[in-house]
Amino acid sequence: MPETPQRRPRDRKQQIVVVAARQFERAGFHDVSVADIAAEVGVSASALYRHFRGKADLLAAAAEQEIAFLDRAYGAVDGLPGLLDEAAGLLVRPDRPGSVWQGAQVFLEPDRAASLERRHRAALEPLRRAVLAEVPGTSETDAAVLTWAVHAVLGTGRAFERARVDRERARRLMADAAAAVAALGRLVPPGAVAVPVAAPGEGLRPASRREAALAAAVRLFAERGFHAVGMDDIGAAAGISGPTLYHHFPRKSALLAHVATRCLDAMHFDLAGILSATGDPAEALDRALASLVRINVAQGDSLAALFSEVVHVPEEERAPIRRMQQDYVDEWAALLGACRPDLARSDAHALVRSTQTVMNRMRRRLPLAEADQRTALVCIGRAVLGTRSAGHGM
Hints:
This protein has 394 residues and is mostly helical.
């Protein structure tokens, strides 16, 4: 008896986009192939190409899916409390679209990236209007900053998943943290002038060849991504010949692993000093937040790139890095639990991860003088952690 031919699902194209978004979010654009996506969907690569021209086309479709979801999350309800509750409920769902827009622009053609950027801002417009209406006297500048900060909080659903927080509890914690951030009201000092981000490569080059190579690698990984940078590029940027560079680091991933470990060592060293200097968990947590903000402001772009690119480090080198990251989160969570007995252990872990993610995302949204930038980030961090009242008297 002849087999019944398999009919193509009507939503096959949407299935492909969902899988692509999830893989891009998990592994990054460079480490995902069209074949990987096709295999998970259960089709051949040639069948996938009938729907999409290539990987960049898939990335754009994934970004469009994410933006359409934000339209739904922020446009369904009027009034900030209801909007935050609705958005948090959607953004902690396990079937929400993968989050790819944050790093997608660099891989898209400029015109398409600009078009998607306009659509992304339009999706956030209901949130901006709700913030303005909820906090009387908020300036347009502060409303813009607060909108990005609230959106950053609502984009940390993975933090609650990793901590295994019940979905309804995660929705409440996320909505409360977002509301506390919105209630800050003013984050930009009156008369503050935007300070442009320093151009890459400015400043002095380390005298040590090894340190020059590390500094060049950090900058190039941040600018181009791990895969797009070769050892020759790093050597040329550091003024070092290839053989000399390989004398210090046998492979490119060793550079990445070394800098990531060094960064985490510095963070743990700072935290150890803070813990030994006070017996008050609230003071220790506040000082730990200030320490993270200081490091973030000084090295934010580079650190964000390093820890998103650490997936390229071999597993035997990556595992210790992940353990150090987890230990750092654990220390913060213990302090937060001591400050807020209303939180379960998993709640505290989720809020700590959420706070640290928001710090990384918000620095670029605050092009202020360093002191003002630090103050604003600390205020946002306190609001997410729930360790200070919303009125910060800036």
